[in-house]
Amino acid sequence: MPIQYLPREKVFRDPVHNYIHVRHQVILDLIDTPEFQRLRRIKQLGVADEVFQGAEHTRFTHSLGVYEITREICDNFAVNYPTQTAGDGLWDDSERLVALCAALLHDIGHGAYSHTFEHIFGTDHEAITRQILTDASTNVNRILRGVAPDFPAQVASVIAHTYPNPQVVQMISSQIDADRMDYLLRDAYNTGTKYGEFDLTRVLRVMRPYAGGIGFDANGMHAVEDYIVSRFQMYQQIYFHPVSRGMEMILTHLLQRAKSLYEAGKFDSKFNPRLLIPFFERDFTLKDYLRLDDGVLNTYFTYWLDYPDPVLRDLADRFLSRRPLKSVTFTDQTAGLLPKLRDLVQQAGFDPDYYTAENDSFDLPYDQYDPSAANPKTQIEIIQADGTLEELSTLSRLVAAISGQASGDKRFYFPKIMLKQDPEAAHAAQYQAFQAHVLNGALIGS
After folding, report:
1. Terminal CA-to-CA distance of the chain, rounded, Å?
2. pLDDT at residue 390 is higher than 90
3. 3-state SS, one letter per residue, for the chain
4. What is the pTM of this model?
5. What's the CA gap between 41 and 111, in Å, rounded?
6. Which residues partner with 350 through β-bridges?
7. Contact criterion met (CB below 8 Å) for 129 and 106
8. What distance in Å separates the CA atoms of residue 213 and residue 105, rounded to the nearest whole number?
9. Which of 42, 89, 96, 294 is an S-S bond match for 211, by CB 3.0 to 4.6 Å?
10. Distance between CA 442 and CA 158 in Å, rounded?
11. Mean local confidence (pLDDT), 34-56
């Protein structure tokens, strides 16, 4: 079927990319589907807006941004590196539409408060993304089938990293791809963190195809270094922020408490979360999944402010009123103190199953390729003047210094009142005993 173009280019105004350009009818049709419009109701950064108040942007805006960066990559390749003969490793522009659709739809399977929800209910947003693309009941599938009968499976194979052209796969998923580049710039913009910015224009300019995927011209290596450092800073300052993680712990325990009450047959029928029951029962359909978004969960949490169970009621209030758990860092050497601290929290009147938590967040700023790894990363290749490839960290001292070096921390979460300093308080003895093991935000031995 011939590709259909819009009679006039459609544009979306965007704070990161200025304009997002749409020329293909199928792209506009996909944007208009209910499955894609649902992404307007799912925040990109989950609960991070409880710390960075501007971080209210959505999976919808991010998905459009990933599409736009992919479109710019395709334009660059089509103009500067068009294929001349079969197998020459240059860009075949007949791959453009599958790349654009995969970019636009790569996050369509994310659920309400996506990563927390996945942890509690065992869902997999990438598997659900592929299901949305290939299930004949969805509007997305119907539109993709209009391109060609096997087109939904082709787009899904890009998401699954099995598409035969590695150039298309690496546009969407690699250590420097359209997905990461958009979310770094978009998250930096919305959180007000300037160190998350990098020179996108230069990175795209020096990007080029080769037979094994996508590489970068040697004269653009410093722009790629800048991207790596920006990503490192964003993970440390935004994605791993301890207060955001404290709110995630509240959300996690809130959903766990509701699930536990339901499984025990103790959930008050007046407060039944009808749209969540299929997930409590581990028997949900794609239709059930697509009915959920952040607002649906927040509505149930609001109902639960009046719930008879004091734990569920309190956790709902803590989440809606922004009262995160506090935290301290711990190491392997101080982890032995955690049972004692949980016991003190319990003595102070809190159920440790719902008011304490361990959380670790680590990231590799740059992960050198290791074919023996369970999920080997695609390395960043720098293309030399003679056409040979050099892995980035072998040329960059800066990247070499942080390659393979996991950064992050382990934290123990607990109610803020455990740090209260009031000798007249009801549980002053427990508070004092707890604080004896805390110094400068870290656990210490006695």
Report:
1. 73
2. yes
3. CCCCEEEEEEEEEECCCEEEEEEEHHHHHHHCCHHHHHHHHCECCCCHHHCCCCCCCEHHHHHHHHHHHHHHHHHHHHHHCECCCCCCCCECHHHHHHHHHHHHHCCCCCCCCHHHHHHHHCCCHHHHHHHHHHCCCCHHHHHHHCCCCCHHHHHHHHHCCCCCCHHHHHHHCCCCCHHHHHHHHHHHHHHCCHHHCCCHHHHHHHEEEECCEEEEEHHHHHHHHHHHHHHHHHHHHHHCCHHHHHHHHHHHHHHHHHHHHHHCCCCCHHHCCCCCHHHHCCCCCHHHHHCCCHHHHHHHHHHHHHCCCHHHHHHHHHHHCCCCCEEEECCCCCHHHHHHHHHHHHHCCCCHHHHCEEEEEEECCECCCCCCCCCCCCCCEEECCCCCEEEHHHHCHHHHHHECCCEEEEEEEECHHHHCCCCCCCCHHHHHHHHCCEECCEECCC
4. 0.95
5. 10
6. none
7. yes
8. 21
9. 89
10. 43
11. 97
Give 198's contacts (C-beta < 8 A, 6+ positions apart). 181, 184, 185, 223, 226, 227, 229, 230
Nearest partner of 315 among 268, 354, 351, 359, judged by Cα: 354
Residue 364: the pLDDT is 66
CA atoms within 13 A of residue 299's CA, in its CB half-sphere = 12
- 438 and 328 Cβ atoms separated by less than 8 Å: yes
Q: State the CB neighbour count (10 A cutoff) for residue 33.
A: 18
- Per-residue b or e along 379-400, where b marks 16 or more CB atoms closer than 10 Å to that residue's CB: bbbbbeeeeeebbbbeebebbe
Determine the Cα–Cα distance for residues 313 and 300; give it in Å rounded to an integer: 11
What are the pLDDT digits (tens) for 101-160?
999 999 999 999 988 899 999 999 999 999 999 999 999 999 999 999 999 999 999 999
Long-range contacts of the stretch 45-48 (C-beta < 8 A, 24+): 45/187, 45/190, 45/191, 45/238, 45/244, 46/113, 46/114, 46/115, 46/116, 46/244, 46/248, 47/113, 47/244, 47/247, 47/248, 47/251, 48/191, 48/238, 48/239, 48/241, 48/244
Which tokens go with 355?
């008011």
Q: What's the whole-number mean pLDDT along residues 367-383?
A: 64
User: Per residue in 127-151, is it b (16+ CB within 10 Å) or e — as a string?
Assistant: ebbbbbbbeeebbbbebbbebeeeb
